[in-house]
Amino acid sequence: MVFTPSAHVRGRKLVELLGCWSGTARPSSQLLAAAVRQLVLDGRLPPGTRLPAERELAGALGVSRTLVARTLDRLREDGFVASRRGAGSWVKLPDGERDNESHGGWFPTADSEVLNLAQATPSAPPELGAAVDRARLRFPEQLSGHGYQPHGLPVLRERIAERYTKRGLPTGPGQILITNGAQHAFALVLRMLVSPGERVLVEHPTYPNALEAIRGLNVTPVAVPMIEDGWDLELLAANLRQTSPRLAYLIPDFHNPTGIRLDAAGRAQLARALARTCTSAVIDETLAEIDLTNDEPPPPMAAFTDRAILVGSASKSFWGGLRLGWIRASEDFVQRMVIGRAAVDLGSPILEQLVLAELLQDADQVLERRRTESIERRESLVAALREHLPHWRYRVPDGGLALWCDIGAPVSSRVSVAAEQHGVRLAPGARFSVYGSLERWMRVPYTLPADQLAAAIRRLAAATASVRDGPSPNILTAPIV
Length: 481
Ligand SMILES: Cc1ncc(COP(=O)(O)O)c(C=O)c1O
Fold this sequence. Notes:
Distance between the termini: 28 Å
Protein name: HTH gntR-type domain-containing protein
CATH superfamily of the largest domain: Type I PLP-dependent aspartate aminotransferase-like (Major domain)
Bound molecules: pyridoxal-5'-phosphate
Radius of gyration: 24 Å
Pfam family, one: GntR
InterPro entries: Aminotransferase_I/II_large, HTH_trans_reg/aminotransferase, PyrdxlP-dep_Trfase, PyrdxlP-dep_Trfase_major, PyrdxlP-dep_Trfase_small, Tscrpt_reg_HTH_GntR, WH-like_DNA-bd_sf, WH_DNA-bd_sf
Family: In the C-terminal section; belongs to the class-I pyridoxal-phosphate-dependent aminotransferase family.
Structural class: alpha/beta
GO molecular function, one term: DNA binding
Number of domains: 3
């Protein structure tokens, strides 16, 4: 396959992507080539990306130009880089990397044949149809107005506020700002509160698109590692003190990707740490209502501290296609957000807001079905993993939509590349990492129906075996950095 060079990665950006590529060893062309290969295989350097000139790259990496030249030679030999006089060098996948016969597996010919486990996104609930019908009847009332509602539609703000009150956090509609999803909500808050060069504290691992938003603003993520059973709150507090981040971004409700929930005592401790350092926190509640237990849920973080800016979403509880989320904060903050928002967008679509307002009338029913379905699918996934990948380790989460699996070796990017060739798309651990690490981990969602999950895990097991058995030595036996 011939790739035309497209995007250009700058030296500095490549250095950031490479992280500490030589580890503790002396820098060598072998290590650098392996690190670049890993970025290509992991999809963080898409094929076609133009590389910086040798001199720029050597300068950015602080290595000799000879080492860079040797690295490019190695990558060219392995088929990961192509060069043309006058056009420079760009990354590519080796020919044969997508060669069906050489791997003996099932290969998709069309995107629709891929079983998508890269996103933990459920399909729409059956109640959506009736909600659309009801919303359509209400729509004409809106048509005499101009249709711009930068705060969001009053009826939707009211219903979201009511749900918070029901969850133990008294809330008025003036405290709600409707956005185009939780990601949009976080990006708006980030843009308003944080300036380039400042720091934002995140959990490690964390939600990849939040990291994208942070990096996109030239803000530095400060990563606090999660431990076996959740948050190391003392370490988190120490990081707040020592690094003085401008903001924290945290997912205490069925954390993506680990699925762990912070209990009430932990929330109180976190609130104290935020108060002591005067740090505001965006609390991403996207998965809060995908609760697969019968336990009384802990109150939302904002019940513990007014430093918590809650961000919610219709995507997991209802449907991602609505593209609606919200911010729950003080009325004053919401007012400031409305003013700040105007630079980016002027409000969310009215019809979708009416649909969500209607769906919220059926919220308990929709969520109960989501719960039952997710429990069943979680069980199907666990059963398939036990059968086909018995050495993978995970804790069965109390909520959320995915398992976070320790796959036993630092090869999750390679497994996900092989899996794509077997017709399964996955998000490897590195996607959730600030440094591109977490190669022992793979997130596996349980949002597909049971039969598709079983098929996906069978294919995944074949892909994992192909990585272990190594049919393509130039890729699969590359040193891991
Ligand atoms: C933790 C978390 N935050 C935000 C989002 C994005 O939500 P939305 O679709 O509302 O933008 C997701 C979606 O997967 C998520 O898991």
